[in-house]
Every structure is written in structure tokens, then in C-alpha cells.
## 1
Amino acid sequence: MISRIDTEIIRNLLIAAAEEMAITVVRTSRSTTVRDLLDFSTAIFDSEGRNIAQAVRMPVHMNSMEPCLRHILKHHVNVRDLVPGDVIGTNDPYNGGQHLPDLLTFRPAFMGKKIIAFAGVLCHHVDIGGGAAGGYNAKATEIFHEGLRIPPVKLARFVTPEEISMRFITTNVREPEEYLGDFTAQLSAMDVAIRKIETIAMKYGKRRFVQAVDRICDQSSNEVRRILQALPDGKGRFLQQIDGDGLTDDEKTIIATVEKKGTRISVDLTECSRQSQGPVNATLSSTLSACYFAISSVVAPRVPVNAGAFSHFDVVTTRGSIVDCEPPAPVVSRMLVCHKVIMAIWGALAEIYPAMVPAAYYGSSYPYSHAFPIDRGVRVYFDSEVGGWGATAKNDGVSGLAAGFHNASNTPIEIVEAAYPIQFSCYELRKGSGGVGRYKGGDGIRRSWIVEADGAFNANMDGFKHGAYGLGGASSGEPARLYVERAGERIMLSSKLANFPIKKGDRITLETAGGGGWGE
Amino acid sequence: MRKLAVDIGGTFTDVLLFDSNTKSTYSAKTLTTRPDLRQGLFTGIDQVLAQSKNGHLDASDKSIDVFIHGTTIATNAFLERKFGRCIALTTCGFEDVLEIGRHVRADLNDLFFTKKFHFGDHIQIRGVDERIDARGNVVIPLTEEALERSLNQIDLQKFDSIAVCLLNSYLNPEHELKAAKYFLSRNPNLFISCSYVVSPEPKEYERWATTAINALLQKECVRYIEDLQHTLVREWDCRALLFNQSTGGLLPAEPTKRIPVQLLLSGPTGGAQACQTIAQSLRIHNLVGIDMGGTSSDISIISDGELRRLDSRTFDDIPIRIPMIDIHTVGLGGGSIIQSSEADRILIGPASAGSQPGPICFNRGGQELTVTDLNLAAGRIDPKFYFNGQLALNKGAVIDRLQKMFPEENVSHAARKMLALVANKLATEIRRKLFEKGCDPRDFVLCSFGGAAGLHCCEAADELGIRQIIVPLNASVLSAYGILMGQLVFDKTVALASVDPRQLQNAFFHKLIKGVYRELKKEAESGGIKLLEGDVEVFFNIGYRKQSYLIPVRMAGKVLQRQYRNKDYLARRLIDEFTKLHRQSFGFTYDDNVGLQLVSAYCRFRGTHPGMSADSLPPMGSGDRKNGHGPLHRVKRPAFKAKRRRLVLEGASSLSASGPCFLEARNSTIYVSPRWHAQVDKDFVYLNRSGSAA
């Protein structure tokens, strides 16, 4: 049996490997989405596909990489066919992916002829073809409108992309150079990790390595069980709305019923709306990653995240619903569904443990993209934003702070202006947009920019109708809004736009939502 | 000629005096005094002066020619928020950039997170109508009326400093210059920090935050520097005051007052510089320095003979983007607390027991098990020798505690296993740091100093596959030694607007260096320093087009200033070097059509000062041994435990020993683990590993 000191050592080494992958991605990637927005994640899995170590990146990705790898190993790849250097990749939501811009890549680490682990990287690529720039087609009604689907296939050997696959892909995307650049960053990062994992396994031997990995997962699982045992039982139910699915303004509802009983927490999402016609849908793996984050951030925020950490959580959904959609439903706005699932779960948990949960945050990643036609191609500027954080029983909410679930950064103004025909006119806090209460919600953000070339604009936002809820009698934050000023006239825009024509000189303004307040 | 190096740290003030006539050095270590740092400093200086006169302090001979200072004044002012009153002037519409920051949070699950850039009490932010675009063109001119409007109802007499932070100013500083002039015309006593001077590169938040911190630090730092200047003249007739900068060079007082943010790493940089000096004198190309003290460990790296640098890091979550020596601090030291969590895990640090209440064995009320306690329990610290035998250690209390924590295990066995975890943690941090630089630990020599490093260096080296360790015997004042050996450096970063280096001809490089030289020369001369035109090194920050991370490629002045037959020789050489580094770090390169971008160049010129002539380098090692501390001789102690030998180093001649054994040096113990072989000469302990790598 492996000692807990050796286990700790192996844990440190594996986390270091995951972090070195993240460093490599930042340093070699070539799109603003990955290198500045930091829209990527890295993790390490055992030979069965269980997550055993990850870098501090985006839970939305990380919690879903394990189900994706497990799916691939179960349905697509015979482990015995894999040889050193093989890289398997997919972006297919219906094969364990999230949405089409996210490309997941995995590479096995070997000891002798046996696979002992996998390194995995997920990058949000700046474009994947489809009906609107960035893959953000708010009017899509089938996944086929959203871009190129890559089923789980071999995409590279070591750090060299498979030429045929890459030519297929780069021919079908708007920014082939960025795509290839970020893909190469994924390959380079996995190469770094594999070398390291193989060294660790060699040093400790296969048996002890496997024992350590089991123990790492058991430790997290036991810790969560211990915490849950100490918490009182209870039940809560909470509802969140989505403005519309992009095609109609009919609101969608997310209802979470959360019950804590003994050493288990269950989330029932069966009351949620049917799957949307538009792209406001999440596959089960996306929804699960939101549920896991929502619960663990409240009850077990200090427990190291790995396959063991989620073993006490149960999630029930209905197939064909907005949180468990079936093909060919479009899914590009899966993140929006995830944000709302998190806030519904937090709202329900607040009914059981009022002091442990903050009021709602802004609740949308505000993804938007511009397409500017250039000579024989299209230039795509993709970006996203955050808003105010919810107030807590202890403090005001922080203004302009990313929720941990997507942990998004912003792209510096000077970087955007140097790269695209964009000039910003303001980037400021939206003072007073946070909810009022004993503690104030954080303020949202106002970001305004003038476009310096004709083109098209896409938005997949939400929260324009309902603000982020307050708790304990406090008010909700201001809803978000988006408008364009053209020839002195202000045109209010809807939260979901596909290929909205923009003209040189237009000024677009995004005002993101404030966080909810806390207490009367 | 007398040169004095002073390193005022949190706990100790180290003073090192070098007399170039006698070629000897004298050192003293006194307790740092607060709030008036001068007390401890005076005591230390009196001590070294007394040593240099063999104890007969002659009032007529108290003079010091050069005073070189490593200081934590900026670091403390920053951590304690001892700030002046400051106005930050930004482009109108972007006043909140400092508060918005970059959104990301270090802890994803912290739902109660509250910390962001909040200097609300110290800084007033005002926006001004002006705009320069991303190509450096003026879109909205900056007018005096606009400045007046934005400063409406502000009494400039009530402020100490101004941070001028305008968009795209790194491409065109016209507006920042104009604003600076305006402020000075209204109140000539203001300290002005312009963002294009402090950190002339793109990304507004990073540039502005650095500039704002510079402005906030200015009052406290300038006051300290001016006080010190007066004191030096009065007491020791010393007019040459030099400050050790985070960049790893020395600067006179005047430029230091302008950019005090460069002092943030002034102290710890000394240790890194000492490592570089050691590497040079022993002809070691790749050296990793580990300075392990009571609460933390500082890691620095020398590869290919060069101290590795960084172009930014965060202090307290705020980005400070200036060139600096890369010193990585890990919350792991002798006082780090060991916790056995209910989740079956064992956690070490970052919490530290410090010196009060201290480790359990200190018997000062410490209840928590620390790394020092483990070393005692494992038999690695001999209670008779700890802190020169001045501190009695209570081993029984440690054993009791360990038995409670690990009832199922043999106590010293458990302690040793946990020490392996300490070494592993140290090794993991070193490996990660080396990884970031694209280096393989197996190519490195470890330099171990600081009170606690010697106990862990062999095991950490084993983890890393490192086969040679060097422990300097003057380790206790090594930082001051590094500062004493420092060189005058005037530096400047030039933004190059992402040009493709393939288009550049040699003349571009020649012109660049000439231009920077002319500018820095003036500044140097005002401080009585001669700038050496030929002694320059330039770090070109270069990447593939569209990459955000840039690799600094170093080129020496000798190469850059020469004439070549081939007009694009320098560009080609630069690109070749970059490609090599990229492949080394990331395992791949792109082909030619991807294109490259040269974003900025960081130029460092060396200068000379009459008091710093090159032939006056002090000898390695501590000269005070001439005064009775004497050269090394060996004393064999009775075996501490049957098989373990304990050798005390306090004297002359060489010595060699094989592990497992212990070497007791002044203020620190070196644990020579099995398979390691120790050799001692007058300056160093050399540890070499035999047999195959672990």
C-alpha cells in the first residue's frame, strides 16, 4: 500500500504537470481568445479516464473533460490500438464535447506497452465555420448550422498535426492560421505533460503510481463525505429564466430542486424546459459540469477537484430537455444554460444554508463576435465580458469579477485596437447597477467601441429581462443591455444576434448586469 | 577606498565593508530596528569599522567612499500601504480600468472573494479628454482646457504624486509629456510618473497599475532616500549612495527616486546576484540558487551564465511590469507548519510559526509541528549546535507531538518521510521554475544558502537529478555580498511596435543602441557616472506573429555594434537564436511564412563610478576570519548517533567526508545524505553525488 506521503508527492508532481501544460498553452497559442482571454483548460487523467489532476483554469471545461474521455474510450477508441504519440481530438457535443468551438485533445502516456494516464487540453478556438463568426450563430436550429463537427479521431502524432485532418479543418474555418496555432499549442502542451507523467510512473513503478492515483481520488471523496455528514439535511427549489432561445422571445425556465440527505446531495432538473429550437441548449456533460461546480463551490470549496470529489453528487435530468438535449439540437450557448443551472442550484442551496451562498452574479458570459471581410477571407474578433458579483452575508459583491465557473479574463483594449478595426470609447464600471441591500451587489461593466469597418456582429447574451437575484430581501441587480449608436440614434439590440450588419462608425455598447444584493 | 554594502531585511541588517587598500572585507549582522532603521544600521557600521581598525575606532577615519544599499523600504511601504496622496490621470472613459483589472481570480471556488485593486483612500482617478489610436496617431488632441476641466475642484497642493496613464501612450508619449508639464507648472513639488516611462509596453492595465504603484511609493521612498543621503554625508562624509534595483543593477539615488517601484525586489535580488558572482568565479554555466529561511524560500536561476529575468510579476495580486531578476518565492521554510488534515492528507506551509511562537522545540509556546521540529526529530539538527548552541531545543515535546499525530508509525521514520515531502515540494517548485525557462534540472548545479537550505539540499537535488551542490560558507551575509559585487546599470525598454525582424537591417540595431545610449548618458552623468558605450546587453522580446508570450533573446553589445558585410546579419542571428529557444522550450517551431514580431527591446548599459573600479573586487568569502574567526579547521565531534558523523566547520584547511554525515557551519547545518560526498575549502562546501541518478 502506498504511503500518504508518497501519495502527496505524486499529487504535487501531477498538478505541476497540468500547470506546465497551461503555461505552454499561454506561451505558444496565437489567438486572443486563448492567449489573452485564457479560454482553455488542462488536466491529467488515469488510464480509465478519471480526472486526477488539473491546472487552475475553467471548471466548465475541466469537469466535462473526464466524461468526454470516458465516452471516447468506451465508444470510439480501442485502448489497445493506441500507440505512443497518438493524439485523439473531438469537438462534438454529442460525443462528450461542449460546443463546437471547444476542441478537446487527449494523448496517452505509456509505461512499457501499457497506458498509465492521459494528458488532455481543451481550447476554445476563435472560429469553427458555421452560420456566424466564432461559431456563435444565435439563429441556428440544428447543430449543422453551428460549424464543423469533428468526431473523435486521431488528429496528430506527437507534436505534428495529421496533414489531411488539419487541411479539412482549416479549410472550413474563418481563421485558419489561429486555428492551427492554437492546435499546435495543445499538442506542445500535451507533449510536455506526457514526458513528465512517464518519468513519474517510471520512478514510482506502475503499481504504486496506480495506488497513488486511487488514493488521491479516495481522499477527495472521503473529504466530501465527511463535510456532508457534518451539514444539516434540507431541501430547496429555485427557478431561473432565460430571455429566449434566439428564435423567439419565449422565456425558458431552469428549475433546480436540491436535496441534501446524509452523505449525498441530489439535484433534480427534470422540471426544466424542453430543449430549445435555437442554440440555448446544453448536453448532459455540460450540465453535469455546472452542477458539480455549483455544489462543490458551496459545500466543499477546499477539496482538491478530481474524479473523487463529485462521487457524492447525483443529478437527474430528462432527455430532450434544455439541460440534456438530443441531436441535432444546436448548443453553442450551452454556457448560458450552465450559468443559469448554477444560479438555480445556489438559490436552492441558499434556502438550506443561507449564509453559505452569495446572491446571484451577472449570469452570462456575454460572448460576441465581429466578422470583417478582408481580402479572400474573414477577420474574426471574438470577445466576452463579465459583470457584477453577488453580495454575501459578509461583504458587498465585487464589481466586474469573473465567476469561478468560467474564470474568464478580458482582452486588453490596446491589444484589440492593435489587431482589429476597433476603437474603444469607454471601459468602465456601470455605477449603481448592483442590487441594493444590507450588502450591495457588485457593479456591471460598460464597454463601448466604434467599429472602423463594415461587417457583421453576433451576440449570444442573456439577462436582458431579469436581473441577478438578491437574497434575504435584497433587490436584484440591473439587467444587462446592448445597443448600437448610428448617426446619432440609439438602437436597442436583442440579447441574441446573428449576422447583424454593422457599418463603419457604428458605436456598440454592452452594459453587463450587476450582481444581486444580500439582506434587507 | 572603502565600499560599504548594506542589506536591511525584515529581521536582520547585514553590513559588509570592503577596503580596497587592504583587500579585506569585514561583516556584521545586527537586528533590524523599527521604525527607525538607522539604529540597527549605525550599530552595524560601527562594528565593521571597528573591525577594520582592529577595534580602535579613530574618529578621524570614519569615512566611507561608496554606500551600496539593498532595501525593503519599497516592499514594506507597499505591504503596509504607506502611500502618498496620488492622482491618477487616465484617458476619459477608462477611469475604472485600474479597478476592473483582468477579471480572473486565483481561487475559483472562493465565493466570498473581495480583494481587488482598492487603493481608494490613497488615489483619486480623473479622466481627461484625449485619445491616441493604436498606430500612435492623435485622434483627440490633449488641451490645457481639458486638463483643467478634469482636475476641476482638485487642489494640486494637497497631493504628493501623479500617475499619468493614457491609452496607447507606449506608441506616442506626446500627451503624457504634455500632462506632466501641466502638473509641474501648477505644483513643481509633485512627483510625476508617466506610464510610457515606467513600463513602456502595451496592455493598459498592467502598464497603469505599475505606474500607479510607482506614484504611490514615491513619497515614502524619496523621504527615506533623502534622509539617508543627509545622514551619510554627516556621519561618514559619504556622497555616493547607490541602490540595488530589482533589475539586478545599481543606480544612484536620483534615478531611484524617479522609479521607486524598481526597489520592490531590492533585497532578495542581492542573493541572486551573489549566486551569479559565484557561478562566474567557479565557471558554472547553469546554477539554481535556493535561499531557504524561516518562512519562505527564494529560487533564482542562472542559465548560460545569465541571471534569468522576468518582465512582470504580481505583488499582492497587482501586476508590476518592469524588468527584474526572476526570484520565485515559495512559502516553505524552517518554520513552515505541518498539518495532518482529516482528509488523509499531509500539508506543509505556507503558514509559518515564525520566531514567535516558533517551532515546538523552541519551547516558546509553539504548538504546531514545523519543518525545524521534523529535522530535530529525525536527528538532523543537533540541539547542542542549533543557533551556535545558544538556543536549547526541547526534543521531547516534538516526539510527543509526533506520536500523537502518527500513532501507528515510528516517530523518527515518520519525520524522515515528511522531510522527503519537504524536499519534494522544494524540488517541484525548482523544476517548475526551470521548466518556465525551458531548462532541464539535470544540467544544473544547486547553490544552497540561507539558514534552512543545507538540511534539504541533497534530497531536493536527488529529486531533480542534480549531481552537484555548492554551499557558500559566508552564506549568512550572502545577500550583502551580492550587493557589494553589484554593477552600475542604466536600462531602458524601447517599444518597437511589433515590427517583423526579418525586415530589419543592421543599421536599425546600431541606431537603436545609439539612441538609448545618448538618452541614458545624460542621466548617468548627472549622478557622476560614466556610461560605457561598448558595455551593453540588449534583450529583444520576440515571438511568432499573434503570440502573446514573447521570448527575450539576449545579444551582447560586442555583437550588436560591430559592422558586418551582410546587411541583415543581426536580424538573421536574432531570428536563429529565437527559433532555437522556441524549439528548446516548446518542442516545435513554425516555418517562415508564419512571421515574427519584435515587440520591444530592453537595453542595459553598464557604468563606472570612481569608487567602483573593477580591480577592487573583494575576495569571495568573509574577510573577518582574519580577525580570529580564522580559517577553517576541522573538529570531529563524538558521533551523534552510532552511524552518523557530525563535523564542525570552524577553521582552516580542507576537509572531505562522505554521507551520511552532518557538517555544522556557522548558523546552519548541512545534511550530506547517502551517496553524497562533501569537500570543503576556504569558501565553499562542494557536494557531489556518486552513482546513478535517483
Note: Chain A touches chain B through 81 residues (CB under 8 Å).
## 2
Amino acid sequence: MHLEVIQNICVGCHRATGSARATHLVFTRGTGAEIEIQNLAILNTFVLSEGPRVILNKARGLENHGGGEQLVSTSSEYQLLVDYLAALTGQALTTAYQELTAPPLEPPASSLRRASLYLTGKIPSRSLLAAMANADDDQLRRAILDLMEEVDFKEFLKRGANDQLLTRSAAANRSLADDFSNYYPVFNQRYIKVDPVTQATSKDSAYATEVFKELAEEPLELIAYVIQQNKPYSEILTAPYTMVSAHTAQIYQTGLTPLNGAFLPAINKGQALSGSQDYEPSRNWAASRQLIMPHAGVLTSTGFLQHYASSATNRNRARARWTYQHFLGVDIDKIAPNDIDASTLRDPNNAVLNNSACSVCHINLDPVAGAFQNFGDLGLYRQRGFGLNALSEGYLHSKAYKPEEIWYFDMRAPGFEGQTITDQEDSLGKLAHIIVNDERFAAATVKFWWPAIFGEKMLDDSLTAEQYDAKLQTLNTLAQQFKESGFNFKSLLADILMSRWFRGRGNEQSTASAIYTGGKRLLTPEELVNKTASLTSVRDNAAATGGLNLSFGGIDSVLAEKRQRSFGNFMLRAAERHALSTACTIVATEFNLAKAQRRLFTRVERDSLPSNSYKNTNQFKVAGAEDFSWPIEIAAVAGQTLNVTISQLASVHNNTTQDTITLNNLQIIKPDGEVFVSGTVSSLFIQYDWINGSPIGGVVMPYKIRRGYDLKLAIPIDSSGTWTIKLNASAATQNNQLDISLAPSVFVANGSDNNSREFRQQMAELLERTQGIDVGAESTEVLAYTQLFIDLRQHAIARNAGTRLNESGTRCEYNTSLAGSVWAADADHSLKAWRGVLTALMTQYHYLYE
Amino acid sequence: MHRRDFLKAAGITGAASLLPAAPLSVWGLPANNFTGDFLFNIQILGGWDVTSFCDPKINIAGEKLINTWAQTQPIQTSGNLRFAPIGDNGKLFQQHGAKMLVINGVNIGTTSHTGGAYFTHTGSRRAGMPHLSALYAFEKGQGMAMPLLISNKIATASLVAPTTFSRNTEQLINPNIWRPESQTTTYLPPEDLHSVHALRLHLAQKLKLGQYSLPKQQQQIDEYHAAVTADTAGFNEFKNVFNNVNLGEFTKTAGTDAAQFALTGFKLGLGIAADITLAGWDTHGNHDAAIPALFNNLYNTLGALWYFAEQLGIADRLVVNIASDFGRTPFYNSGMGKDHWIYGSQVIMKSQVNWTNRTVGASDDGHVAVKINPTTLQSDNTGMVITPAHIHLGLRDLLGIANSPSAAQFDLKVDKRPDFFNPNIHTSQSLGTS
């Protein structure tokens, strides 16, 4: 182990003169027993203090190891190290991950549901999900690839790219206005307004804002374009074009006229290079010359360059650092030594060039920075006098500067890890080609996009050794397949979504379950808003942008650059705000559509309730007496009554005499057949205080009604089962109409009648659509939500909420030209109850995590 | 307590627009049972020049210029503290020096922003460590609705879900209110929302009782459950208390907004830790032109913070920690900027304690940390150089979490414990010229 690991690998940096000399592990180079004993003593001391895992993790590039990954966990050297440390510490240390059992996978429909939401913002239709129930891997993969052909896939791509690149910060970068007005004549003409009379100038900031928004989207559109056009993904860096929209097409003088927010590929020919000593061509447009931009994909876009702005002393190093991070997967910051001494920083001999403590990073960083040599602080191309270079003003006036120099003499020459880039005009284009041909580009692409799917970095220090090994294997496999596919991005994304990392689910019996932790995660605010819009057609614009977005973990690319992925009470409040502000609109939208057109409420109407309440209209076949019978199943619960109203809702003859109906005898039969009450209506009306109503003339001998009069019963229920109301009534005229409504006063969630079952079926479907869980109509979850509906409806009755959804004191954002009496009609208080039920559903764990 | 009663109790009716001579106190508001300290961590982003602040350096003849200001002005003092005459530093040290423990000569050991900030705010270079604020919120703020408030993402080691400040936070104090300015119109009738909450609580508890083999899923459910069951009673008074904090003469900034929000949350039992950032300190170019405004902003933020805390009656329970990625070179670069320097300083603030108005640790004339004796705190060639790990050890002691299980889990692995909070000793700052 000493020879194979310490001497052959570690001592390269971990020696007295190496870049890791300031760590606790400083070995001696050489062979011989004495050196070996000495080195092992140093290692043992460290291991017994820090534990063996630290060494293993560092060897594999974890724990901020400055040297990155030195040992692949499948290598024999790694195994030697494991064996040594296990013997030293007595601990059972895992070697390379070997999959013992394949993890159970979630059903294909579940995978498609989540993939669709992430990639397109849509929850698939019930029919599509049903069709996927028994799909094999090929079918699922094809369905996932189909998602990438949808228009909305573009938003996923742009959002995922911006989460890494943060180019949308350009939309708020006011500093761009000066640069653009001094170097882009078309921008200048629109931005600087001159009063024709007074010649006073003013600035059109609204125009600038629109331009900045296009600049912010430019690199993201480029990435989306490359992917959607099925071009090799490497073109995101090598594209000899950019993307323009309405304003930038003009500013870049492309001759194109994109409409409706569209972006088109084009070459930027709009920037002027100074034709004089004056830096700014705006001082003399006539003397300037137009530049044909040597594009290098996103690298030359203003959005990218302004976000990683440079300065006189930074000299493009931020651009280089993030180029390494985004496109090569190398975090140069982590290579930085942890124990620099002051003498290094005082080193007068150009420490970044010559001092090993600095050059450990700068040897790679600075040549890449040099490749950005043509671009100024915010991204202009060679903005200095005569368009010669983009060097800092201080440097140009220093003794160090030599005419015709375009890069700093005291920095490493433009290049990449030993290769020099000699093309001065298009050094970035050359760098781009080198990067996409680098072995690390494919793996970097996997790492770049992993968070867009999983909401976390692919490899980080929180992983267990087993997880790290398993992920490393996945990374290598995905990268290899990606490369072999000719950088087919859609194929890569499908591979990721088909992987066990996305599809694995829990199984306590499986070792694999501790490794493949499942793909379900907290939604981003954009995904949450998309999900609601997809399920309901109601889009919450307030939550999609602005402060609510930030409160639910979103980013603004300026102050908030990283998504908040863990959930707390304040995020719950943001989700609740989203639910509260949309629930009423969703309910109103749905119930003002025909059932067949609705997305959620396909089994109920405004008067559908979780009970066997019903209404009946009867017409007399002849003038004279007729017997009627109305059965109803009802549960005897505390306070239960059966509310019955017998009335005439419509006049048939429009004649008070002809329309009259006489209510003769009433009989109420209990479930066991016992007669509860029986007698003439008029006598019962006098006898029982639970029998009320308004007979014609206010007299009750006999009890007569017509339109506007009625008989009301509130029958106290003392036993469960089917109660029967029997009535003998006489019509003054044939065809007279008699209406009856029967409803228990207290609904129960588990009613056994058909109405209640149908209602619960509706609730189960709501749960399936909104939560992605199939719990069945008789589940405790469905019963709980049904009970909530009942409670909310009862609240509305108790507070006399009126017959409209938009009751006094509440806000409903629904926007319609229909009269309130139509769109908000809610005599049964069902819509008010559904409003609350939706609020509850939309703040549940399964709604917020997919 | 109704709003009018509250205002009456607070004694600030009708006076909100006037800057009082002394901050008004708001006493008697209900809070939860937490009686410990509140932690407010300020991250100075980019690396600050402490030689122009709390570890002032004058120039050395024949050496590179350290500070332009030192060509014309001497080092200033306030109480036992020394400071540089830049921006509002004078006001800061004169008004708040009595609450300050300055720790100079801190070796961060790196010039990487990422690594420096991580070490400074977690106390360790090891991966997977939490910021002190996250550790504290986890240990002492369980069950609170907003145990940790942040302005940008920080390392939490998955201990706690932080609340991010945003422009619309006011809207979320009561999400059911249609518009914050109109308290009468709601989306749902209150009794309906109450029923919704009751069901949510029931289902969350049921969810929590389930068995989940995936650690990630278990963590998600734990987070959701904690969010649902958090103590939110303080939100009922939040708007009243927040709006009645007198802003004084301080400029309203993102930092003061965060302070006002966080301290209101502290007062009402909603949270106990905040972690905010002040940006713009990476002064590689035109350093002298940039730093006055930066220190002014620091004074403004700290001044407002303490002013608000006094009004809310929690100043004696407030611990403020101010630290940066690292320091800046004791010399200028060709662009008159200052680059990264591994040595820096840290300031801990607390009122009404006997260990402030002191400086511990020191750097030499060239701003290189000197070794100190951890017991006497005096310069000692056989002693130790202070690192953020030592300071975090002290802060964990101060906050009463040094012996907690999570402190053990996130062990700082330091073997020396400088006696930072011993009021009877300090480190002589005679090195250099004053």
C-alpha cells in the first residue's frame, strides 16, 4: 500500500514542497523501510484522529479534497487502501459499491407523471396514465422522449440552464445600458431620445428593460434551440451564432424580425468597434467599424459574460472558474489550498504565476481566463481604442503595456491545460472546441442537468460512501452513453429519467433502497404553479413570479442564486397563499363548464352532496287524489333530522284555483316498518312542532298549497335505515305539479347510498389527480376529505353565507362576463365547500412533493 | 391583546413618525417559553479589509502602502477598542463599542471565497458542516415557525429548513388576507380555514407515523410535519409589532428590513436565529473609493439592529456575530484594489456583559496573525494562532450548545480553547503604532 498509494499517488502533492504541504499529511518521497515507517506513522496518526472514512472520501475526491479524485473506488489501489485502513481501525469498510439487489421501481405511470410535470409542466391525462399502467421500459422511454417534443419542454430547459448559469441576472443589470448605448448604434438610437425642439436628451428605460430581458434569455434560448433542434449538445459552446428576438434582432443588425417573443438563430453584426483613440464608438459612429461577432455559443453571450463580470484585476478569472465548473465539472475553488501562508501572498514575484500555493489553481485557471481576452468587463468585444483589445485602462497606461498586445503580459497565455490558443480574434471559439472534446465535458453535462431533475447536486459530500460509488458508476455510464450518442441530449435526459435514481422506491428489505433514495422531491415554485395550471387551467401569476416565488424557494438570479430545497413553515404559508388565492377561481371555472369539459369535477354538479338527499317533481295524472311514496336511507347520528319540503315550484295553469293542491294524509314509516306518525296533514301540523310550513290562507283545514306555499318537516331520526314518507294529496286540476325535497340535516362521510358513494368516488379522483395517489373511494383519506366538505358546508349554513360562491367578505379572483347569479350560484353551499377542500388538497405533502 | 391595547401598553401611539430620544421598549407581549439568546449572524461577503476597521494598520516606512487613510490620519480609539477612521466607523465604535468583542489575527488559511466563507461561518473545513446559525436554530428553535431566517442560501447540513426573506413576506404573515392593507377581506372564511388546518394537521401526523425506508422520503415528511405543526401563534401579533418598530434615522435597506423582520420574529417566539449577507466587499479595484460606503452600510445595519432590539426589549438577549470570508492584502494592487488575504477579524456583540469592549488576538504591523497563549491571551511564540474553529468553539459555549448532541456530531476538532470571554484578560494591541 505504501508504494502503490502513498508513493505513487499521495506524495505527488502531500510532500514538503508539494501543493498540499500545509495539510496534516506531509509524506516523504522515496523508498526504504525507514521512510515507509515514517510515512505510515503520519497516516496512522491522522486516521486515528479523523477516522478512516475521511481518507477514503478524500481519495475519491470528497471532503473538499484539494487534489480532487485520485482513486477510483473500483481500482486495486483503492482496495489496498481499504484493506489497510480496515486492519488499522478494525472497522468494516465498504469497498467499491456492488449492487446486491436491484431496487424496486415505481410503476411506469408514476414515473411518467413526475417526468411530465418536470419536463412539460403538465400532469398527464388519466387516459395516458392508464395506458402506461403496464408499459415496459421501451414504452416508458418512448413516452418520456415524446414529452421532449412538446413546446413547454423549452421552459424546463431554460429554467434548468438558468439555475446553473444565472444569466437572467442580465434583466436587472442597469450597467449594460451605457455599454450598449456607446457600442451598439441601433440601441443608442432607440435608447437616447432627443427632443427635436430643445435638443434635450432623455433615456428610454422601458426600452432598455425589454432589451435586457432578451439578453438574459439569449444564452438560455440558445441551449434550448440546440436541444430542440436535435443538434449535438456540444453546440451550446461551439455554435457560431446566437439567438435574437424582436429587439436584439435589430440591435445586432441581423435583418430578422422575430415575432411574438420568438427567438431565432443569427449572427451579431451590430456592435461597433472604435475607429479612433476614443474608446466609445458613439462619439463618432462614422469612424467606427462593424464587428461580425466570432460566436462561441453561450460563452460569448452577454447574459453569460455580464453575470461573470470581469475587472482590472479579476481579468476574466471568474469566467474561467465558472467555465470549468459548468462545462468541465471541475470546482477549482475546491482545489485551493487551505493553509496558505502570508509570505505566499506577499510574494513579489508574481505569485499567481510562480508560487505553487497560488499556481495550483491559476495554472489552469488563467489560460482559460486568457481565452476570454477579447471581452471586456460586461462583455463588449474589444471596446478599447481602435477596437484593439479589451485590456484594463490601468494596464493600457502602465509601463508594462506593449502596443498591439491583447492580453496581459504578466499572465499565462490564452490556452487550456498546456495547449496554447494562438487565434487572437476567436480564442473563445477555439477554447469551446477544446472543451467539448475534453473527456470531462460529457460528465460535466450530466452534473449540470442533474439538479434540474433531482433538486440536488449529483455528487456532494452528504452522500454515503455506497451512494457515492453508485452515483459515480451512474455518472460514468451516463457520460459514456451521452458521448457515444454524439451528444444527444434528449437521449441523455431519458437515460437519467429511466435510471434507478429517478424510479427507485423504498423497500426495507433491499440494500439498494438505502442507495437509490427515490426521485420524489419538493417542487420548485414554477413546477407548483405549472402543476396547478395543468390540473385546473388556472395559472397563479403572482406565485409564478415575484416575492411568492422567492418565498417558496425560488431564485431571482441576483440576490437569491440558489434554490431553497428544504421545506419550512414559511414555505407552507407561501403554498397556502397559492392555494387560497386560486381555489375559488378553480371551483368557479370548473362548475361553469359542462361536465365533459372539466378537468377535476367530472362526477358532481353544484347540487351534488355526500348524502342521498334528493328532489322529486310529480305531476298529477288526473284531477283528484293520488298516493305518493318517497323512501330515503338515513343514518341516525346525533342531532339528525330528515328535512322534507313539500311545495309547488312551478305553476302549470297560472291560475290560483286550478293550481291548488290539497295535502290530505301523511304517514312516516320507520326502517323497521313501525309507523312513526300518521294522520291528516292539518292535524299533524297542529300536533308536532317539527312540522311547519305555510298553507294557503294560513288556515290548516284542509292543508292546501300552490306556488309560494309549502309544508316543511324536520323529522327527528332515531334509527338508521330506510325511512319512507307517504302522502295522499288531491290536485284541483290534472297535471298539477307537486315538488318534494328530502335531505338529512347531518351528513355522514360514509353514507352507503349511491349519491354518497358517487361523491366519494369524485373525492378519490381528486386525490388521484392532485396527489398522485390511488387510495380508493372508501379509504380513510377520502372519508377525511368528505368530512371536511360536510363541515365546510355546515359552516356556510351556520353563517348564513347566502346563495353565491363569492359571499360577502371573501375574495374570489374569477374573471367572467357572466352575471354573479349565474357563475357563482351556490344554493346548496357545495362550491363554498369545494373551495376549502381544494385549499386543503393543495397544501398537502403529496401536492407539494412530486 | 388587541392592537389598541398593544399600542397603549407599548406607549407608542401617535409617536411612530418621530424619532425618540431613546428607543421605546415593547414589553409584555406573549412569546413562547424560550428564554435564551437570539443569534444574528452577518456575513460580510467577499472579504473585508479589517486594517481599515477593527485591526487598523498604519504604513511602515520603506514598505508597501498599507492604507491611504493612514497617510493623513492616525488610528482612532473608543473605549478599549481601536479602529480606522473610515466612513461611519467612528459612530459605530462610539455608539456600540461597549458591546463589541473584537477578535483580531484570525487565520482563515485560504483565499478562496467559497472555502473562506465556509470555514468562517461553520468553524470547520470539513464537508457537510452547518453554519452556526443553523446549528443553533436546530438545537434551540425546534417547533418554531421560522427558527432560522436567511437572506441567501447557507450551509444547514439538513438540520433545519430556513425561511428566506423576500419582498412579499408581509403577505405571508396571514396568507388568507387578500391584501395586507385591508384586513377585512379574506379568501376563506376563518372558520373554514381552521377546518382546513385541522385536517392538514391530522394528515401530517398520520403521515409522520408511517414507516419509510427511504431516508430522503423520511426527511421530507419530517420537514413537512415540522412545518405543519410549528408554533405559529406569534404571527397573530406580527403585523402590529413589525409596523410599530420605529425605524429611526437609519436608511432603510435590505439589511435593516431583514433585521426588523427577524427581531420581530424573535420577539414573538417565531424564531431564534438569522443569517444575512452584506455584499460588495470584494474590492479588487478602487478599494479606497469603495470601502467608506461599505462600512457606512455596516454601521447602518448594526445601528438599526440594536435600535430595533432595544425597542422590542430583547437587546440583552441578542448575540451578533460579524465575520467575512477572509481579510484583504495589506497593500494595494495595480488597480488600487486589495486582493485576498488569509488573515482577518471577527466581531461578536452582546449588551450588558462584562466581556465586551475588549480585543483578543492580534496581528503584527504587516497584518500577519501573532500567536497567543490561550490562557492569558497574550502574545506567545509558543502559543496558537486563532482560527474560525476556535471562535466557533467559544460561540457554541456562549450560546449554550457546546455540549449538545449536534455539536458533538459536528465536532470542530480543535484542542485549544482560548479564553475569549474572560473579562479580565485581553490581548495587547501594542504591536504596531497607535
Note: The longest helix of chain A spans residues 205-228.
